[in-house]
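Notes to self after the Tuesday call (sharing in case useful).
The group wants a holo model before anyone commits to mutagenesis around the pocket. I volunteered. Ligand is RFL. Logging inputs and output together so the record is complete.
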Amino acid sequence: MKTQVGIIGGGPSGLLLSQLLHLQGIETVVLEQRSRDYVLGRIRAGVLEKGFVDLMRKAGIADRLDSEGEVHNGFDIASDGDLFNVDMKGLTGGDTVVVYGQTEVTRDLYDARDKLGGIVIHEAQDVTPHDITSDSPYLTYRQGDEVTRVDCDYIIGCDGFHGVSRKSIPSDVLRVFERVYPFGWLGVLSRTTPVSEELIYARSERGFALCSLRSRVLSRYYVQVPLEDRVEDWPDERFWEELKQRLPRAVAEKLETGPSIEKSIAPLRSFVAEPMRYGNLFLAGDAAHIVPPTGAKGLNSAASDIHYLYEALLKHYTEGDDRGLEGYSDKALARVWKAQRFSWWMTNLLHKFPETGEFGQRMQQTDIDYLKSSRAAQISLAENYVGLPF
Ligand code: RFL
Ligand code: PHB
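Result:
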């Protein structure tokens, strides 16, 4: 098989790039190791920045997002029983975010790929990039006993944190920066009315909690849990009880509980791999960087990589101009590091860190008091949350 751009990974990054390039007449093949149902069953992000929404529009697939996504003008921060609102829209001069699940984004992308006859190969095993520093790199994958070769001009690694792409870069070239946090997030999806129309990020003595949503009838809640905890340790009743204890009383009293329809634990990690290009292999999204979900930046950072890559590949194929490809790694990383800083800061502000003791708690409380009293501090928070410009 032969194509122009070979993409590893059929998550949001890989599908979005493939859709955008296809609309410009650039051929792609996407190799995804899982089934489509598996990919669509993953419950992950919920908050989309304007830049992400604009890319979906450019890809011609924002109809459902525009009609079903909920525009959020702000969010609340709760600390020790007290609640205050961050008016993103007012603070940034009009910017907002859209709450629309990653599952829905992925579904829209698959529908669009199907409609255009895009090639997405599922259950592709042993995907391997070859000759990535040559002018004729290629991919191989296996289905059953059959091994297929895909020749291409470029290989794009959109295969998430555990994928094969990043591992194909020699260890003396790749630099890795990492912070693993001593806790995870237990997430629950339930068919209940969300406790609040806007998100609530809650810091409490018992640890962090987040009230989010997917629609008027679908709630998404998270609580910080020790790394050793397993989903089985958290029957629904225990989850709801713990969540209530971490929220201001007035909020807890309103909380509607019900059976969970999804429950999972995700560890928290900050991670950046540099460079994001090696030869004709380019990394994008979680394959190159991970943030703790506190700032809602993971999927949005993936989208900014895709924006830069798309522009660079378009310039290459339409004008023979390779400057975008050459500058990709530096340009993408500059924005990635800012999202890293913000996510790390939000995580430090709101979680309970066993090792920092009472001094750490006072610092958090003071940071929150400062936020409440300073419009300048709120503007900084708001402009990062809505997303820095591409
Ligand atoms: P993905 O989504 O991990 O997709 C990678 C795809 O590659 C496939 N794959 C392979 N395919 C072929 N060969 C291999 N060897 C392969 N190895 C892997 C995988 O099966 C998969 O389909 O990466 P991508 O596309 O870069 O997208 C990144 C986002 O998924 C991620 O950043 C976000 O979900 C992070 N995130 C959030 N981001 C936000 O912007 N806003 C949020 O509100 C938000 N909330 C979250 C989150 C992530 C969470 N978890 C579970 C980590 C909340 C949570 C709880
Ligand atoms: C979510 O709804 O899943 C969500 C929202 C905001 C975050 C993280 C996750 O910061």
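Two things stood out.
Residues 45-47, 199, 212, 220, 293-294, 296 surround P-hydroxybenzoic acid (ligand 2) (CB under 6 Å).
The two ends are 34 Å apart (CA to CA).
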